[in-house]
Amino acid sequence: MNTKNRFSPLWLALAVVVGIVIGTFYAHHFSGNRLSIINSGSNKLNNLLYIIDDQYVDTVDMVDLVEKAMPQILSELDPHSTYISAKDVQTANDDLRGSFSGVGIEFTIRQDTLRVQNVISEGPAEQAGVLAGDKIVTVDDSVFTGKSLTNEEAMHRLKGPKGTKVKLGILRYGEKSLRHVTVTRGEIPMKSVTAAYMLDDQAGYIKIKNFGENTYLELLVALAQLADEGFQQLTIDLRGNTGGYLQSAVQIANEFLPKNKLIVYTQGRRSPREEYRSDGRGSYQRMPLVILIDEGSASASEILAGAIQDNDRGTIIGRRSFGKGLVQKPVEFGDGSMMRLTIARYYTPSGRCIQKPYTSGMDKDYEEDLLMRYQHGEFFSQDSIKHVGPEYHTNNGRVVYGGGGITPDIFVPEDTVDYTSYYKEAAYSGLILQFGYDYTDQNRGLLQEFDDEASLLKYLKKQNLVEKFAQYADKHGLKRRNLMIQKSRHLLEQYIYSRVIYNMLSEESWLMFLNEDDPAIKEALNVFKAGEAFPKTPNLTDKKQKKKVAMTYDYRSVRRSHTVIARA
Question: 372 and 468 share a domain?
Fold first, then answer.
């Protein structure tokens, strides 16, 4: 392999970025000797940039070259230093901001057509008469279908400043003619606390989807709701929660910790140690607490779980978390684009860094870490977890590990007992999602008669949906396998039911259904029943505990994952 050719794109990228960005960025963020050092080291790169612009055989779009070079440069640093173009900044910030300005729909793109998955209650689209199941085929009288239609393009066209109007052309099931509606865009709330209900007469349950600007306030509302219902114990579900704002995680941890307990601290080469401690004002400092995590729990989720675990304040149940412990600082550029630059690391109260190992410039290896964990058997056996680095100890002396996520106190592996190659292909190919949507769409009028999860489920159980799915899948390329279908029947039923419930009711109803026989939820209830929500001994070294959890399974990782749904 020609080493010179291998690195030439990187040098070209460096030249472009340094030459164009250095003057605008560093002039505002640095001064004195540091600026002169940078400039003196970049003369050669500036000259290279000038020569390319002056003498290269073809005209070079320098702005476009910068856009392409920025992500490449930052990827050489670490997996979480990123560049966001000006057109994507708004979308990147919406999930954490807690709201956005748009029409108020959740949608998915299937067969080159935008299909309305859900209409946000009391939003602009609902007021204009848009219904779940509608297909949006024109926007402002322009065709809005085809292979070029993407989630990004759809959000770009449907989102917009509050008060502006957009004309939608809609095809509705059972109608042949196109109907037109005009929607006045408005502020659309995006909740990060997506469920709050009672698991039994004492245990409350709260699902936190991410950590945004309003997450703490949403949590307080959820806690007040559960208080009205008399909850005495609490399970917080952080599975699949990829994180968000540090401050939100700190505020939530503060609700459950006594005064002056270390929650997390950050430290970097040019970022002095900064500690975040509880102030003693939390209203639930003694309530029995369980935190659910899995391999999709990252960043702020790991901060909260680590604070609870290291302070022996609650029990962590599930599988080892993702391992994202790097702190990013947002830096805005003059053209509206933004860089998120890693400036420090997170450390839990015991001193462990939860960031999993990475090699600069090797994004593929980092991204495939979860696949490697799966292949190594970590999702199925607690003993397969590979810990990196030394042991750490909680306040009560329990052993915990750093260097790669939060390891739970009680391990809940995935179940493969009823897995077959047929079920695996049906699930991972998206066929069950597609069938669930099509079945819902074709029977929406009838399904609307059921306004709660229990009544809808009772109806669905009488519809022989596994057989209908098998016929559907056979027509769409998944050959029928009767013995495998019979073996995986329960899994297929549960997955199909969950999709219809999600499509017709709400995310909370969907979670209520999934949680009914969820082994992690059952473990949480067992912990409460046994009075073990405040860990006293090192669970991970208890042989009896290992034997117990080895018999507990979780086959919901596929079913808990959504189809690709976006909001606009």
Answer: no
